[in-house]
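DM from R.C. (forwarded with permission)

"hey, sorry to bug you on a friday — could you get me a structure for this? deadline for the figure draft is monday and I only need the backbone to look sensible"
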Amino acid sequence: MEYKKRFDNSELLKRFKNWCYNCLNVVKSLEINNENKVITHQLIRSSTSSYMNYRTVNRAKSKADMIHKLKIVEEETDETIGWLEIIQDRNSVATESLQNEGVELLRIVVSSVATLRRNS
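My reply, with the result:
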């Protein structure tokens, strides 16, 4: 039996995956010290969580479950943007483009949640 998706989120899924990978590349570029160890751990956790939780959206059992899953993505994406800001401020590493992509992804997720709530 073939699994049927509720909607086609493949393009956005690719964007989340690429964004996650680019965040991981930032981690690789940083100097290893105690401060960066904490910051990079958090960035790895939140960026991978954004991507992996977005993957689960099509497995939602209901609109309410989909909204719940998207709210997790929203929180993790916002947190990732914050860690990218800290990295830029503390390490003089340019993360503006990653922050901008994160903001765009965040806006899409927030808009999706609003649409789902309106249509409930």
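R.C.: lifesaver. The domain at 10-118 is CATH 1.20.1440.60 (de novo design (two linked rop proteins)).
me: no worries. The chain has one domain: 10-118.
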